[in-house]
Specification:
Blueprint: E1 6-9, H1 20-30, E2 34-39, E3 52-56, H2 65-79, E4 83-87, H3 90-103, E5 106-117, E6 120-127, E7 132-137, E8 143-147, E9 162-165, E10 196-199, E11 202-205
Parallel strand pairs: 1-2, 1-4, 2-3, 3-9, 4-8, 5-8
Antiparallel strand pairs: 5-6, 6-7, 10-11
Helix pairs in contact: 2-3
Amino acid sequence: MESCEVLLYHSKFCPADGLAAKGRALADSLGGSLGILAPEDSGAAGQISADILYTLSVGDMELQPEMAAGILQQAIVQSGAKVVLLAATRTGNEIAARAAEALDAGCISECLSLEIEAGHLQAKRDIYGGIAVGWVASETAVTVCTVANGSLDEAVTGQPTAVEKLSLAPAPAMKEIVSTVPVEQSINLTKAKHIVIGVSGGLDST
């Protein structure tokens, strides 16, 4: 499988059209190639400029962020990507966080600007609740970033020089529910890996 230094993630609810220019600049700074991961029916080839198009047939990339994160995780490992970029949509932010957690990688969300300094990724983003802007440096082997909508570039179109069809195992769509207890009872959660909390707006997890 051909490797890349920077990998873009593209799907219907997380389009990578505005990421190509930033991805290309980062790939050039790292001295490597720019890849894009997209469903084979997304039309990414010819619409988004990249060196390598990694394509696969997985309709659930559009529906299940948890499954999409598992697929992205495998693609990062197989491609050897050091920097992964997604648009900072609601779906993109969730997929980025899940994939980074699974890989024990760095995750920087809502980036305004990205650059490579001394071989490490640096990202400019809002801090202190948006009242200031600061630079965040990542020292992890892999860093997954989402780019704020206002910082997306105009689409750069072009045909990839290589197209690879990936065969990836889909991640489980839902985690197993181990047990439930009435609210008046208590349960020891000290050994729990994940806690799912029901709230009025839906589900949250830690």
